[in-house]
Please model this.
Amino acid sequence: MTGLLERHIAAVTGGASGIGRAIALGYAREGAHVVVLDANGNGAAETAKAITGAGGKASSFVLDVTERDKCREVAAEIGATVGRVSVLVNNAGINRRNAFTAAPEAVVKDWQDIMAVNLNGVFNVTHAFLGQLRATRGRIVNIGSIQSFVHVRTPNSPAYTTSKHGVLGLTRALAAELGKDGVRVNAIGPGLIETPLNENARANNPELVRIFLDHTPLGRTGKPEDIVGPAIFLACELSAYVTGAIIMADGGYRSI
Ligand SMILES: NC(=O)c1ccc[n+]([C@@H]2O[C@H](COP(=O)([O-])OP(=O)(O)OC[C@H]3O[C@@H](n4cnc5c(N)ncnc54)[C@H](O)[C@@H]3O)[C@@H](O)[C@H]2O)c1
Model:
């Protein structure tokens, strides 16, 4: 199917790399004008260039999602220069795998940094685009995780787990509040997806991959492209009656 996102302007945070980059390219293939947002401005520009090079429509802006005022400024600039955003993908995220019992400095730093990006960042960007999303009866797609739930086999990292629970909570709270405005709010829960986020862990900790795969019915890790279909579905009219949901794209990890 093509053209599912014709006439939409879709902003994707963390669009320079991994899952965000794949979603940006996928949305552009469906006809959206994609606004690539990332703290890594060169990476964002490179994704936009890949889209326009393939005949699609894209713009890029440097945006650190932890900077609330900057989020407002950039959202206003996009509204004035590109147009009103009707699809927002809150994808920017970081992870570190220190246990709560690790060295206190590391635990405190993880907590502050991870919450700032993964949870406060979702708040900052969503709040900044709220007017545009309400005006367009738009859609919000938040990237959660299997760590939006707790599983005893999943290597834990309390800050990340808490941030991704928060993303699911915010998804449900906003779905409840914004449904009357026609704004749909959903999440995707990826499993272990091969991206730079977990490159070191995959290279240095084969046990981590084994734990995931032992529990994954489809028996493989995911690729960023595995998240694109669910992300298109939640942004387009095919999901017109879906809100407040989390779609797990995890090879079955959490379902079994
Ligand atoms: N890879 C996985 O296995 C996996 C699993 C579940 C959920 N996720 C989630 O998917 C999302 C994307 O992760 P990925 O695996 O593609 O990672 P990635 O590291 O490949 O990409 C993350 C992108 O976010 C950007 N970013 C980081 N901090 C930012 C900030 N403060 N402001 C703006 N941009 C920022 C980075 O520059 C990078 O381009 C994250 O929310 C992550 O938690 C990933």
The helical segments are 18-29, 41-53, 68-81, 104-135, 158-178, 199-204, 206-214, 228-235. Residues 104-135 form the longest helix (32 residues).
